[in-house]
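Methods — Computational structure assignment.
A single polypeptide chain was analysed. Its primary sequence is given first, followed by the predicted tertiary structure written as structure tokens.
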Amino acid sequence: MGVLTLVLVVIIAWPTWLIWHTNASMHRVDATSTAPNTRGTTYLFAGSDSRDGWNPDDPTEGQRSDSTILVHRAPNGQASMVSLPRDSYVNIPGYGMSKLNAAFAYGGPPLLIETVEEATGLHVDHYVQIGMVGVTDTIDALGSVELCWDADVSDEFSGMQWTAGCHRANGEEALAFSRMRYSDPTGDVGRQQRQRQVMNAVVSEALSPAVLINPLKQYRLSEAAANALTVGQNTNIFNVATLMMAMRKATADGLVGMPPISSVNAMNEAGAVMLWDEAAVPGFFENMKNGTLTQEDFVLPQ
């Protein structure tokens, strides 16, 4: 009886401590929305291009939102995941029209949230951010993830070296995979696809039996996630977990992609920008809010 009691205590205590430890260790930032609430739950996931702690030989300073992904769980249970291209030409409150990723540079998470909310009409309930080092450390804690791309790539800017097909990738390789765009003829469209693929690969690996039954891997993942993630003050590890599950469901249902785009490479005073389809975008995000999106709504430009 004593042994059984001890086993039960360990089974209960270990995940309880792990959850507490991860939640207590995550970095937090003021990222509270002031917009009116909308139905369902909306998560804003931002991948920062900050080089902090990544490469001492890289002189790039500051940070922008290299990847901005909106995930919504509607009241009817529908989950959808929309990449908002970094070069999207949108209004940044207080600064005027510019590229979306400039919002993060100008005003950090609060201004990025405000910009996304104005552009989409969705209230952001939870904010989650990860930087370059966070990507590599999290994937290395898992060991590796499987990624697929049907092209040979040798890209000096991102460091991506790839032979067409599917391969197991470590943290550094996965980061290059998600950052590459100059050697991709579709530019940021292809990069958005690879970023979503990396995120889904991380979720799948984290929920795999190899991790769920291995306390050592669980601890390594907990440490990596705690150090990698920056979240809003009202966001906890359970919210991060529900974000992961929503991403997984959106991918399984095929409700992933970009909002309607009218031009992928327009030129104006901000440089090369991506223009959203002004006629179609309001209906797209209204359907996202209501849980009535279909796979056909995610039409990519030709």
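Note: Residues 181 and 187 are 5 Å apart (CA to CA).
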